[in-house]
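ok so for the tutorial part 2 we go from a plain amino acid sequence to predicted structure tokens. step 1 is just haveing the sequence, like this:
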Amino acid sequence: MNDKNKMKPKPLIAVVDDDSSLRESTQLLLRSAGYRAEVFASAREFLDSPRIDETACLLLDVRMPGMDGLELQRFLNEAQRQIPIIFITAHATDNAEQRARKAGAVDFLRKPVNDEKLLSAIQTALKGWKDDERRRQ
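step 2 — the prediction. this is what the tokens look like for a chain of 137 residues:
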């Protein structure tokens, strides 16, 4: 088999949320849409994961025990890890949304999230990832 016939890797979407039912349902949605999906119950679990380096998009809750979503976003920015982030939260404030967007969030969605709106936001977030993949080839 030559290189042109190799399958391109599917983007990995990481879901970081302390709500187990949201993690599971989002993982099912993402896989049914053709993405690879990994779920994490906390920011620390994500940071300790070997998947961090291959994450193409991060779906992130704002309020979680321990390091919250905004703190994780700040940590990733300071570490110069350019992972597109989409916040999904039930505890939205205008201040949190402004901080998230100012720090580079692709989108800020409120729970319950419409599946089509979420998938559209992911497509927007992945535009840069796909461009990076093309440059590597």
